[in-house]
Design a protein that fits this description.
Blueprint (H helix, E strand, L loop, with lengths): L24 E5 L9 E3 L2 H7 L7 H12 L5 E5 L4 H7 L8 E3 L7 H14 L2 E5 L6 H8 L10 E5 L2 E3 L11 E3 L1 H13 L20 E2 L5 H10 L1 E7 L2 E4 L17 H18 L12 H19 L8 H4 E4 L7 H5 L6 E4 L23
Helix pairs in contact: 2-6, 3-4, 5-7, 8-9
Length: 369
């Protein structure tokens, strides 16, 4: 080979690893065909190549058809014949963060627990479903089945959504699809705006393919269900939208994780912190603290990025986060053990759950203040 320095150029940066893809859907089901190892699909055409067309597996095809039409971009899909727990184990940590769902399973405490445990162990967020004919009382019952353990790592959504007949199907009828298919897509649309601490709900994320809901709830029922731990859809001022983005964690000023967006923002931070930390492995722990300060600088930049997106709360960055790498967290014993430690404290921003507008009427003879 020739001597000297060689410089290559490119028009785009190298692709980032899986850990930056927080919009990924991990979908497990007892499909009629397909692979028993995770397959990445980016379109319904990919689904038909790797699994089946609609005539071969209507449930899978309809779910992902709605997911992609509502804005989903990528999904790892796996087929299982034994149990969902075996399938979830195939979605290994190295595939990165994202949302996980198992629409083939019974919507009960066992399934909810398996999904939440998987999400906690693999830095993901579980999307829990209700049954297609659940009314408000049944949805409240489902919310009561969510285990307390790891419940900040997922959220329950209902009801199912109504969507048009498949394109090109003569005489086709309206379909009903799991809420999680839509929510996973709305999350992908929210993430595309850059802020992972954005609630995938409300008027900014209107449903663009669904035509209605399998079960319509009243405003009072929606409030009751939200407080019970189930998020529901709504028609607001003519716009179909998701109208809740909370976990089943009881609302409390001492934790932000009653809001699903805070849980997902944590997922994002964990993912990127892993990417940031990896290049520091095998580097020398110097006595001057230069390596520690370099790690601190990288983590500061990560937090500042989220702060500038309004994902962290504070009048200034110093109010919103702090990264500590000093001697208090990196003792001589830590150095002797080959450890480099950093403690990152953050204040996650919360979404506005309630808007209060006080309308004051002033007579024409009066004066507005």
């Amino acid at each position: 080979m020739p001597l000297g320095v060689e410089v290559t150029t490119s028009t785009a940066p190298a692709a980032r690893g899986a850990y930056s893809q927080t919009d990924t859907l991990f979908l497990a089901g007892d499909w009629s065909a397909g692979s028993e190892v995770p397959v990445l699909v980016r379109s319904i055409a990919d689904v038909e190549v790797s699994f089946a067309d609609r005539s071969g597996d209507e449930a899978l095809w309809d779910y992902l058809d709605v997911f992609f039409r509502e804005g989903g971009r990528r999904a790892y899909v796996v087929k299982y014949d034994t149990g969902v727990d075996d399938a979830l184990a195939l979605f290994t940590d190295d595939l990165g963060p994202g949302q996980v769902a198992a629409p083939s399973e019974a919507n009960d405490a066992t399934t909810y627990g398996l999904l939440l445990d998987h999400a906690q162990a693999n830095n993901r967020f579980a999307l829990l479903d209700v049954d297609d004919d659940d009314d408000d009382a049944a949805m409240a019952t489902k919310a009561g089945l969510i285990p307390a353990e790891n419940n900040e790592y997922g959220a329950l959504f209902g009801s199912w959504v109504a969507v048009p007949a498949p394109a090109g199907v003569v005489g086709g009828t309206e379909r009903s699809v799991h809420a999680s298919a839509v929510i996973a897509a709305l999350i992908a649309r929210a993430d595309a705006l850059g802020n992972p601490n954005r609630a995938a709900a409300g008027r900014d994320f209107p449903l663009q393919y669904a035509t209605g809901f399998a079960v319509v709830v009243t405003t009072g029922q929606r409030d009751t269900l939200l407080n019970a731990g189930c998020n529901t859809f709504a028609l607001k001022l003519g716009v179909l939208q998701n109208y809740g983005f909370q976990t089943s964690v009881v609302q409390d000023v001492n934790t932000p994780f009653w809001q699903a967006n805070a849980s997902r923002a944590r997922m994002w931070l964990v993912s990127f912190a892993r990417e940031i930390g990896e290049p520091y492995v095998f580097k020398n722990l110097d006595g001057k603290g230069r390596l520690a300060r370099a790690l601190q600088s990288d983590l500061d930049a990560l937090c500042l990025r989220l702060y500038n997106l309004d994902g962290l709360y504070g009048e200034t960055p110093a109010d919103a986060f702090v990264v500590e790498v000093g001697s208090a967290v990196n003792t001589i014993d830590d150095v002797a053990a080959g450890e480099l430690n950093a403690v990152v404290e953050v204040r996650f921003s919360l979404h506005a759950k309630r808007i209060l507008i006080d309308l004051v009427s002033v007579p024409v003879t009066g004066v507005v203040s």
